[in-house]
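Many introductory courses stop at the sequence. We go one step further.
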Amino acid sequence: MTSHSAAHYFLEGLVDLGVDYIFANLGTDHVSLIEELARWDSVGRPHPKVILCPHEVVAVHMAAGYALANGRGQAVFVHVDAGTANACMAIQNLFRYRLPVMLFAGRAPFSIHGELTGSRDTYVHFIQDSFDPGSIVRPYVKWEYSLPSGVVVKEALSRAAAFMQSDPKGPVYMLLPRETLAEEHDESAMPPYPAARYGEVRAGGIEPARAAAIARELMSADNPVALTAYLGRNHQAVAVLDRLARTCGIRIVESGSIDLNTSQDSPCFAGFDPGPVIADADLGLLLDVDVPFLPQMLKQAKHKRWIQIDVDALKADIAMWGFATDVRIQGDCATILQQVLNIVEAEADDAYRARVAARIESWAPARDAAAKRRTAAAEQPADKPITPAYLFSRLDAQLKPTDIVVNEAIRNSPVLQQQLHRTEPGSYVGLAGGGLGFSGGTALGLKLAQPDRRIVQIIGDGAYHFSAPDSVYAVAQAEQLPIFTVVIDNGGWQAVKSSVQRVYPNGIAQASDAFQSRLASGRQGERRGFCEIGAAFGAYGERVSDPAELDAAIRRGLAAVDDGQAAVLHVDVTPL
């Protein structure tokens, strides 16, 4: 008889599930897994590659970037309750982004006197024995479990994978007690659990009658509009939406977008502000979008007719949502929109096609005007600090369509979206959750999954602090993952200042310029040297504050990345 530790069967389970990577920040609870990995390496047995991340926020976000590129969740190992707490913010982001990941946390040993292999043998095992570590992430996971025995480890892993990969996708969490991982079990006593038979549930299409009803509404509308944020997660859906929009004359608004949902070259692309298009619309589509508009800022929207098609239509995990719809459908947008498109194309006659063509042509002046406003906004004032719009326009001039832009510019995100011209599916990633600091780890994960594509992380100075940049560049150095980081330094948190100004426009904070949002350092108020953090881990670093030097600085940073070296460009912009 051959016996192995539960850690051995755990690794076998990950292999059976097709997991490629373990993003890890390890602790005393992982001893059996570390021993088993060494055993497998000693005999040349392949296993998911372990990537050590000095901070959990980078580990989880790397898993996010990898899943975003190929749709498959990976494993993240963190240390007991402390690692779970560090990972929690990133897990919240993945939950809102609907990205799969398996978060595994060890649990402090429960045996005290050496009764079992793995019993408590150090001081920290007592103080890390918390009552309910799962409560740290419970609001942000689809499923959680504490592994009771190594006998069920493969079934538990299959169950976890089914939850994380089922639509809408998302994180799962499992606690792994140290003694449980160290248990020995006879191989013949382990029940078989083929992962393929415990697979995910996928969203699909709708019955023909409802598809036909939507097609009829679109064909009878005079001014339909579509608002979408993450439809582009499925690249096939981008092409389907564009064809439907051109066939039916639908203006598409990227509303709070976290993916590229339509090419900005499309004649149906109507920008990022839903206000102007909703005002004239007689029918609206809400397509994979969480916050299509701000209700108190766009009160006329409630009087419009809305059709919602969403992989997560109910938004069950947002306590109060507040967007009334006349038709609500949960399903896969690519499939459903293709069903509708097939009906429209079959029923459209020459008169309908001519009417749609005239409608699309009528939008050209508005698109031309928007282009002129964009060009004017990017003009750099003489003898002034670099403006964000100028920075983004100059960066846009040097990027390729296939480059992936990871946008964490926060208050400057709308400016970035206006100035950075994106046309290719998958070439844009925004922030879906509420936790800042996502873009560094996500950029690394995207690069890991797509080594031939250039990844450009754009981040504000406030968010940069949250991203654990030392961990980001340590991993970039260790794993040879060159990413290009552009830090927009305005000396603080513009979001904090703007929020106070919106609520108290004539308040004392406004009058005294006291917003508690500046981050200037040093006794003379000089700004930080963000590029030096990257340089400490082998990245190319440069700081620029003169507009005349910006183009050359961008070229040098991109050249370093193309040569295999991570790069950080620290750009001083108009101060807060």
